[in-house]
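Help needed: design a sequence for this.
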């Protein structure tokens, strides 16, 4: 009797990068028996046992790499165009003031006249031709040779110009303060034909240097539903106070905004 035993074990390990895992086990067993008998009475028994174990292990290492890329692109475009157009038409009208420099009637140096061409006077008022660089004034008269004097009197004139509600009135003139006489506060108004005052003001002694002429401009906007009205200029001084005020080169300008008056 002969017995042969063979055992074989094979292990194979491999590593690969994959996303799967595989495990395989294989076992193979083979047995062969052969018996031969002859007349010589010989017996032979052969037993062959073969055992084979094959183990295959595949280890797969899976590497997962996740790459996340987030790109946000935001584009904001804002375009704003604003166009503002404002159109305003303003017209200035210079009113022709009659005898604005008080040159009529003409008088001799140092003399005066209670008659003033183009002006309506009351009380002690008239034209005067002062001495310059003498005892009365230190400088020349602003325009021409003569001035208006008001010694407790008044002078007024209706200007050849029309105005409406919303118009702006500008009144300009020179005021003189004599060296040899106290200054009497000067008052003025711009009024409508009905006597309604549209612009008023005054000039006091501290506003005018002694022996000098000072230039003044007063402005105001007409209100109160005035339509197509001519304007009256009125100057005066207090009759209860001593002294006088002298005036020269009166100018009146009406500036219209182009808007029709409210009816």
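Sure. Designed sequence:
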């Amino acid at each position: 009797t002969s017995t042969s035993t063979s055992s074989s074990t094979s292990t194979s390990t491999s590593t690969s990068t994959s996303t799967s895992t595989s495990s395989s086990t294989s076992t193979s067993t083979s047995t062969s028996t052969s018996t031969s008998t002859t007349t010589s009475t010989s017996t032979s028994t052969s037993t062959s046992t073969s055992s084979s174990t094959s183990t295959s292990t595949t280890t797969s290492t899976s590497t997962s790499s996740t790459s996340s890329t987030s790109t946000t692109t935001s584009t904001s475009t804002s375009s704003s165009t604003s166009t503002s157009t404002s159109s305003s038409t303003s017209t200035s009208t210079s009113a022709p003031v009659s005898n604005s420099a008080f040159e009529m009637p003409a008088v001799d140096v140092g003399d005066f006249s209670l008659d003033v061409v183009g002006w309506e006077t009351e009380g002690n008022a008239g034209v005067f031709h002062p001495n310059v660089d003498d005892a009365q004034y230190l400088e020349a008269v602003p325009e021409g040779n003569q001035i208006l004097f008001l010694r407790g009197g008044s002078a007024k004139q209706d200007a050849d110009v029309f105005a409406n509600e919303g118009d702006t009135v500008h009144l300009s003139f020179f005021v003189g303060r004599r060296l040899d006489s106290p200054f009497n506060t000067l008052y003025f108004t711009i009024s409508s034909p009905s006597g309604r005052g549209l612009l008023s003001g005054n000039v006091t002694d501290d506003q005018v240097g002694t022996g000098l002429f000072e230039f003044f401009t007063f402005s105001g906007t007409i209100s109160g539903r005035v339509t197509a009205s001519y304007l009256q200029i009125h100057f005066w001084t207090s009759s209860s106070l001593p002294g006088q005020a002298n005036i020269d080169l009166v100018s009146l300008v009406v500036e219209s905004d182009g808007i029709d008056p409210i009816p």
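The chain is about 0% helix and 50% strand.
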